[in-house]
Amino acid sequence: MKNQHTLVAPSILSADFANMAAELQAIEASGADWIHVDVMDGHFVPNLTFGPPIIKAFRPHSRLPFDVHLMIEQPERWLEAWKDAGADRITFHIEACRHAHRYLTAVREMGLASGITLNPQTPLCEIEYVLEECDQVLIMSVNPGFGGQKLIEPVIEKIRQLRKMIDDKGLNTLIQVDGGISLKNAQKICAAGADVLVMGSAFFSAADRKSLVREVQSLKK
Hints:
The protein is of the alpha/beta class. The protein has eight helices and eight strands; from the N terminus they run E-H-E-H-E-H-E-H-E-E-H-E-H-E-H-H. The chain has helices at 20-30, 52-58, 79-85, 100-109, 155-168, 183-192, 201-204, 209-217; strands spanning 7-10, 35-40, 66-71, 89-93, 113-118, 136-140, 174-178, 196-199. Strand 3 (66-71), helix 3 (79-85) and strand 4 (89-93) form a beta-alpha-beta unit. The relative contact order is 0.17.
């Protein structure tokens, strides 16, 4: 069943790493829905971030679902490690694996929500035949690797097309969007069909995070 409001998933890539326990607690206090964890290996994308031991250390500081986004090569090698670290949802890139159906199924068999991610230039036809195994599809609206980038506008149409694809198949798959999202563009992203907005710098720089979260959650599709 679809959620009654737009979900907000702050990305801890933009948090204060030196005060992560406090940041995680502040995310929960803001009323946000998920915590988005960007995992980068320095190979699939040109940056390094968190490994499973770090996230395992973060886990006791929040009751919110950990939404782990694997921007890594050979993601299938790390699925069990992320489950053990406390992930609730795992998405990996279609560009990084050969057997997406197998790995999506494996994530679900672990009792976690499964998802696939597409870079801005990757066409939707790449995931058409695995949609039934996806609890969510993450559309990148920037090229992955760094926070604070500007949203790539043509991705809005891609979101609209994915919404139609999901609805035509009668699925409950969530559409998640990540990259350059702010209050200025959140409404049109939601109007295109997004269910979950990942917010990084816009969330952590907000003077009133609770107000920001409430406003985004109230946006209509």
